[in-house]
Write a structure and sequence with these properties.
This protein is of the alpha+beta class and 807 residues long. Helices cover 54% and strands 17% of the residues. It folds into 4 domains: 155 residues, PAS domain (Beta-Lactamase, 2-Layer Sandwich); 111 residues, Beta-Lactamase; 135 residues, 2-Layer Sandwich (Alpha-Beta Plaits); 180 residues, Hypothetical protein af1432 (Orthogonal Bundle), CATH 1.10.3210. The chain is built from 28 helices and 18 strands. A hairpin with an 8-residue loop joins strand 8 and strand 9. It comes from Clostridium manihotivorum.
């Protein structure tokens, strides 16, 4: 569609919309104004009608009171005087009073006498039915002397009525009946109302529900027909009043609006024609010249053409902008040619590849330099697509497919991937591919991918060398701490579920470094690392954590494998004989479980267990805490070193028989040495008293379990056996001390020490008693089973004694 036609259509549509809008607005404003005036006219007409009827009702009320409060009327109801009728109730009187009917009712509201004037029988019957309704008349107060006035309708005629009680002129006598007087609203009264209200009024009998108060106004082109309902003297909406008014103001306003609209349309048509001429002369003609010039540029593809338009309007500015654009395009073409030449030279110089993939058609373009470098043989783009992916290393192919899928499904345009390929000699070539999605369809699906292929084989070899050096320990050749931390981060990131960590600390390294020099210390570390590599599986990761510490990561293996490996490592380290001191290593392990969900927590548990192992290792130079406490205990009390060592060995054997784990056996050995450590806080006169202790002294003696608990809690190396030290004098039946724990409430290790310690005390001499024979001790254990001792532990301990051939 041409601009000329579009402009014409827009002008005509704008013209029509403007005309319609203006006329609608004008009509609505005028119509609203006229409706307001006409509504007021209707209301005024009804007000005039109401006012005139009120005057007529007051007039008939006055007449009814004059006759009802007259002594002769009162006496007439008393004796029905015929003279009263002949003199007063005649046609001449009815004509003078302008009344159509008069009714006399007695005190029971029964008809006493009546007189009608110019009324048909049917009309008179209808009036009497409405006025002489006893149910209504009975509601009027019989002692009241006030009159009641109103209107009724019959046969579409309106009657003005008044009902007054009959009494004497002094109004002191009790009413003896009622007087009903009424007159018809004749033509004279109707014409008078029509003249005053400037309308045509009719009265109709309402045939609907009397309680309905609906009003209705209907307007047509020339007249207003309004209706309203009046209450009759009985209080019902039984009289419909219709008013017919000519719409003078509406008709005049409509004619003026027609004249104004016609003139307005003519004026707008003239303006439209003028605008059309101006638009064609100054806009469309110049636009046609500009369009023709752009068509020449498109056909000839000559950016040296130029256009000239006179004037200083928007079209001349567009023409100048077009000329400027053509100059820029000419320069850009030169730059594009230069860039293409440079790009070709750069690709040849760098020997990099240019990769242009049509994803939808599986067509691939690769520059000649890269094809020669890797030995492509495909003839067309589709064959090249399949050959390229056939050259990718099988180990990289699946991962590359996933990466491509992620690239194609993401909203990111740029990507960077690396993978291995084979050249025509079968050699591995590392390739870095960097590129961009340059085209997508309407749904965002990629259509075209462009990238650069770079040979990074040499760089990869260099990176592998650097990586090996950065993740390896120079002295031992093991992985270093940085490598292990990276592995642990990977485990946490992938939520790897089943793995163990073993942490080891070589005992005596500082002593060798200080006494023999660091060269010998390095030799010790190297020998230990050699044993670790020899004993661990190929898929176990052994690392030097730092100094004399090692960490072993074991994935996908059982706890039995780990404990067996620890035993082998300890035996191997004990067999190293090239140093003046015995070589040993403290080991602790932990596994990932529900309590230790990340590597940091697992490492922390393994480290604690390693230090716990160090405390009970004789060869450790870090068991000073244990040695110091034991030395103080032995100096202060009759507890001998032989006793503690027997407890340690016997409890270890019993724990082994029970199948305790390695870390629990370490705890048990340490507990055997230090279970009575709290006795260093008991006064010597109580500890060394040869006779029986008093009750007070015994209470003091029993506090040694709590003292030992506090010592262990305040010593980090011993805190893990504090609860067992506290409970080692609890009895299985709950009668022990200090807490009266019962059964399995007592920690297992404390129950073991209770059995072993009691047996050793009974079978060895003390300052305050002689030793008992083993048979006696066995019988005591059996007797106190389930009382003082755990019966299962007693049974297992007796089996141990049999195996040791002690019984």
């Amino acid at each position: 569609m041409s601009v000329r036609l579009k402009t014409l259509i827009i002008s005509i549509m704008s013209f029509l919309l403007f005309v319609v809008f203006t006329n609608v607005v004008s009509y609505l404003v005028i119509d609203k104004y006229i409706n307001k005036i006409e509504s007021k006219t209707v209301d005024d007409s009804f007000d005039v009608l109401t006012s005139i009827l009120n005057k007529e009702e007051n007039s008939i009320k006055s007449t009814s009171l004059d006759w009802a409060h007259w002594d002769e009327t009162y006496n007439f109801l008393e004796n029905k005087n015929e003279e009263y009728i002949r003199q007063n109730i005649v046609d001449n009187t009815m004509q003078q009073l302008k009344v159509s009917f008069i009714y006399y009712l007695d005190q029971n509201n029964d008809m006493f006498y009546k007189k009608t004037y110019l009324l048909e029988d049917e009309e008179r019957s209808e009036i009497e039915k409405k006025l002489l309704n006893k149910s209504y008349l009975g509601k009027i107060n019989p002692s009241s002397i006030e009159a009641k006035e109103g209107v009724i309708s019959s046969n579409n005629k309106l009657y003005i009525v008044s009902i007054a009680p009959i009494t004497t002129s002094d109004e002191r006598s009790k009413p003896n009946g009622k007087l009903i007087i009424g007159r018809v609203a004749d033509k004279e009264l109707i014409n008078y109302i029509n003249t005053i209200s400037k309308s045509n009024i009719k009265f109709l009998d309402k045939l609907k529900d009397y309680n309905n108060k609906e009003e209705l106004t209907i307007k047509n082109n020339g007249y207003i027909l309004a209706s309203k309902f009046l209450k009759d003297i009985n209080g019902n909406n039984s009289i419909e009043v219709t008013i017919d008014i000519e719409r003078y103001l509406y008709n005049i306003g409509l004619s003026y609006l027609m004249i104004f609209g016609s003139l307005y349309i003519v004026a707008l048509l003239i303006v439209l024609l003028i605008d059309r001429f101006v638009l064609n002369r100054f806009v469309l003609k110049r636009l046609k010249v500009l369009n023709s010039f752009i068509g020449d540029i498109t056909n000839k593809k000559d950016t040296n053409l130029r256009i000239m338009l006179d004037g200083n309007d928007e079209f001349s500015h567009i023409a100048q902008s077009t000329n400027n654009m053509l100059e820029e395009l000419a320069l850009a073409n030169i730059d594009i040619k230069d860039m293409h030449e440079r790009f070709t030279l750069v690709m040849e110089a760098t020997k990099d590849g240019y990769f242009d993939l049509n994803i939808e058609e599986s067509r691939l373009y690769i520059n000649e330099e890269w094809k020669q470098a890797l030995g492509y043989e495909a003839g067309d783009d589709r064959e090249l697509f399949h050959e390229h992916f056939s050259k990718i290393h099988p180990e990289c192919l699946e991962n590359l497919r996933k990466r491509y899928k992620d690239i194609l499904n993401s909203s990111t345009d740029f990507f960077d991937i690396s993978y291995r390929m084979f050249n025509d000699m079968g050699e591995i070539v590392w390739v870095s591919q960097r590129g961009k999605i340059v085209s997508r369809d309407g749904e965002g699906k990629p259509l075209r991918l462009i990238s650069v292929l770079i040979n990074i084989t040499e760089r990869k070899k260099y990176e592998e060398d650097i990586l090996f050096l950065s993740y390896s320990d120079k002295l031992t050749g093991l992985k270093n701490r940085a490598f292990m931390e990276r592995e642990l981060e990977e485990l946490d990131r992938n939520h790897y579920e089943k793995y163990f960590l073993i942490m080891g600390d070589v005992n005596g390294l500082k002593l060798i470094n200080d006494a023999l020099g660091h060269k010998e210390g390095d030799k010790l570390i190297y020998n230990v690392s050699k044993e670790l590599k020899r004993l661990c599986s190929n898929d176990d990761i052994v690392s030097r954590w730092g100094g004399d510490e090692f960490v072993i990561l074991i994935k996908g293996k059982s706890k039995d494998y780990v404990e067996e490996l620890i035993t082998k490592i300890k035996v191997a380290c004990d067999s190293i004989k090239d140093f003046p001191i015995n070589v040993s290593i403290a080991l602790g392990y932990a596994n990932r479980d529900e309590e230790n969900v990340d590597s940091e927590a697992v490492m922390s548990v393994a480290e604690k267990r390693m230090y716990r192992n160090k405390l009970i290792e004789k060869k450790s130079t870090r068991n000073a805490v244990t040695s110091s406490l034991l030395r103080t205990l032995h100096e202060k009390h009759s507890e001998t070193e032989e006793h503690t060592m027997r407890i340690k060995e016997l409890s270890f054997k019993l724990g082994t028989s029970l199948g305790l784990s390695k870390d629990k056996l370490d705890e048990l050995e340490l507990l055997g040495l230090l279970h009575d450590i709290g006795k260093i806080g008991i006064p010597e006169h109580i500890l060394l008293k040869p006779g029986k202790l008093t009750n007070d002294e015994w209470e003091i003696m029993k506090t040694h379990t709590e003292i030992g608990y506090r010592i262990a809690k305040s010593t980090p190396e011993l805190s893990h056996i504090a609860d067992e030290i506290l409970a080692h004098h609890e009895r299985y039946d709950g009668t022990g001390y200090p807490n009266g724990w019962k059964g399995e409430e007592i920690p297992l290790l404390a129950r073991i020490i209770n059995v072993v310690d009691s047996f050793d005390v009974m079978t060895h001499k003390r300052e305050y008693k002689e030793a008992k024979d083993i048979e006696y001790a066995v019988e005591e254990l059996k007797r106190c089973s389930s009382k003082q001792f755990d019966p299962i532990l007693v049974e297992e301990f007796l089996k141990l004694l049999e195996r040791e051939e002690l019984i």
